[in-house]
Design brief:
Rossmann fold; alpha/beta; about 15% strand
Chain lengths: ~160, ~160, ~160, ~160, ~160, ~160, ~160, ~160
């Protein structure tokens, strides 16, 4: 098949799929070829490093990484690649994702992680599509349709008395 | 001149330049043509909307927005464009940037802001360059050089007894 | 009908009605004509701007805006009107409304949002009535009755041994 | 003189003037007659109660209360009057105003305090003026001028390359 | 009966009894005559002031006040009496008692509230008993028994292998 | 001299005197005989236990304990005595006293610590005096004078236009 | 039997077993002889002190202490022994373990507690085993097997398209 | 030389030495041979991995890692070795070390980091020595002396009136 995988979605454990599967659903809808992998920074560090280092030559253009607690996955991947890395802080600890948010976003100078909202798998996918849309006009078109629909689903009709 | 501006750096007030000027310095160094503007979501909302709506046709590919307190700038811009928007939460309030971080990153589903660390102007610039590098090989090369240098400046030589 | 709508209640999404409908109930009871609209800062920014800009000439005197997460709705409306804007930070994110509180209340100098408690739809309605009561004596009277009843429903009889 | 005092600015201690004096400066500029008092909820509770109970008949239309730490001043005043009460949470404790913010904004149902940003004396004054502008056209005019100037002072010229 | 009420337990609303009734149970057990009242700082401010001002001459020696959100009850009572006032911050808001804790404990200099743990009705009762025990030997004795039993109910037998 | 020491002020280290010396100054002024000791829960645990266990028979009636960071001092003392123990959470760590506050106030059921505001040495002394005043009429009188003066020093004259 | 107990697991109350029993399960699996005890810093301080002081001569090499709220157990034990003490902050209060985390980790200089994640009984056991593995080669081997299995259970196969 | 390095102290950047040098000072004093290295998880990930993987065969027994912001250094090292890893969360970001604390301590199950207090370089060194003391009697002796001196430097003489 001619469709090259452009976005890699990675998460630390199988149970993160509950939230992270929304990435796949949105990317699907926006027509962005993607793959999903499980790899833990802490339990399978070599696999994560290998994944990140090979990503660019495998043709990936964006990596989305979701992790909870001391969420190092996105940052670790970012340290091994120059591709844009999007981090999704996940809930699941007693601190309800505040730990994951700070662990994901507060990166040291020079190695950014593009962080989205806690459990924001959907926003990660849209952001990936926005990045790809810069050079993939078809993705841009689907994004435009998606955004228009967002506006419509807000429903309501501003200013109309109840 | 043939050099098209690719990145727009926006901030809410003149005083944000103290932190945000680092965006320009890093983009300069990475050879990314950029512009810097002051526009406040709350004080000049039309200007912000106009800026965001016209960004794509003016040739911008990425927008970086820095703001403090109830930092709405990045989110407002994101609501008016499909370009990737990078948000830099700024310190400057008594809550030291925690308010700006949450106001920037916790976007509703469908309108992402790629958030970097508090006062992370430098990371915003690197992230913008990573996005542009997907279609600008020269930016990629400069990014690689930049990253290598980062590694060197860490100094130290691992494992050597003091 | 002669009854002009005085208070506009706006919220970002249909699901916010679960909390925000209490605004309507209290305004109803205090005899304040009002309307309820759905409009999202991020998904329908033009609609929000249009709503805010036209509010005064449509006769509104107070706007109540409820939103969660990076709650920009009240602030955005405030930037487009000189009417008093009351913000209701809503729960619904993993941070339980702390994000919405800071995004609503920490406005930059010059563009205030009158913020009430998290999920405080009821207080928003009472505050709107207090503002209107300054020039609507009938609203003041109903407010007085409401307040007296509040006192009574506290029940208990101070100082009485159990 | 015919000019009736419309806004009462109250604060818990002399040292709060450092921040709260900005209320007076902005009200002055917006042409809103006002008074400033020192009265502590905890140290002079009777004075605060008396102040609040007599406010309306003395002709006040809005009360602004600034306090730090366990900031009860605005809430206590609100419990004694039906006038709109604006609360300014002040820094000055080791928690840097987070304690004052929560103590001011998290009011129980039925007794709202219109809370502005931490140390937000300026926003409190603007909010008071917005409320008064509903029935004082001259205040509205001055507010409009003030807002236009705000926009101008943002400086910068959106979209212009640096 | 000759038994004078020594401890007044006050709370802002009927629903606080769910937690606060534990005060009564523990005071009962420690043989401390007490009364329970409902009075809200914000909804019935006069009743609270009256309660506090009359407490000493009615023979109370300690007052326990439980409240949630912007918990001003204990502080307000403390401002009207020289009796020791114990504050119990209650959960019940989206911030889970952090707001009540800060509103209760962060009192300004000169008007202390003896704050116990969030929802700590039991500790409030024990603290009241410790204060009374200074001049009521029978309360001390019952406290000693209570403390011994506490130690026993920890169960376990330290240092014994499982 | 016939004056029995009634209040023991303990702190974890010499440097805490900077804040805690205010306890002594206020107790002095209120005519409460007291002593000041340095004893660290963690560095001199036996001394702390011994201090607490012997306090009552040495005639102490209230113990004030000030500590920072993981502030265990007040809690540890409380576990060794039935005297009322007042805890003063101290700043001095990067978390600015939030750690000390939670470590002091969140005691398990049955072993209360009467916690005052962060760095609240003054309030600790006043609370101790309020407790002693229950059986020492002279302390009550001095407390009354102190409270009256507090009211006066608030200065300002409520309701007077500026 | 020749198997000397090497790790002591202590917790403040029976109900902590719900989380803390995982320590035993993991230590079991790693072949580390251990014991479990219940002893509360606050309710049975002598027992805790005695436990800690005798630990080393009883042959223990590591102590794991789990506690919630103002979690002093680990710190108190650490003050009575030179053995490494591992602290497990437990949830169970309205602050969801943030109080326990700060009370456990923020120890003063000189008396460390090796703190693991909130409710991290499993990590405490692994850390104890890592310490013991330095002188117990069989524990090291079992740890290696455990770690390998951890990697396998992450499942997923990195880089494979979905 | 016969003295084998037992503890490796690693930090992310030269500027961390300001705090982390205290590790070296304390280890020196406790007679623990150690080395200090600079290696950043994000800027020199291979160096960190290599350092961690080779640590055990190079004879290290404990690794101390200090890092700020999204502090991944300790966790990354822990994922590459079975040696006990001690994490020191460092201040230096606007969040004052809270980000570093959560990023260090909230490790996923199976890969613990023994976390000490924020900027707790001294406690990290003492903890390392406690671990080594299990098999190095000379370290234990020096630790005992160190602890005794700690007690003495608390100064004060418990229970002595001022």
């Amino acid at each position: 098949m001619e469709e090259r995988v452009l976005v890699g979605v990675v998460m630390g454990s199988e149970k993160d799929l509950k939230v992270m599967k929304e990435c796949g659903q949105v990317l699907e809808r926006l027509g962005v070829p993607h793959e999903t992998s499980i790899a833990s920074t802490h339990r399978t560090p070599e696999r994560v490093a290998e994944y990140a280092r090979s990503a660019q030559e495998r043709g990936l253009q964006v990596i989305i990484a979701g992790a909870g607690k001391a969420a190092h996955l996105a940052g670790t991947i970012a340290s091994h690649t120059l591709l844009p890395v999007i981090g999704v802080p996940l809930t699941g600890s007693p601190l309800n994702g505040l730990d994951a948010l700070l662990s994901t976003v507060q990166m040291p100078g020079g190695i950014p992680v593009a962080t989205v909202d806690i459990d924001g798998a959907r926003n990660a996918a849209v952001l990936a599509a926005e990045i790809l849309a810069l050079s993939h006009p078809d993705v841009r078109e689907r994004l435009q349709a998606y955004r228009r629909e967002l506006g419509r689903t807000v429903g309501g009709n501003g200013g109309t008395p109840r």
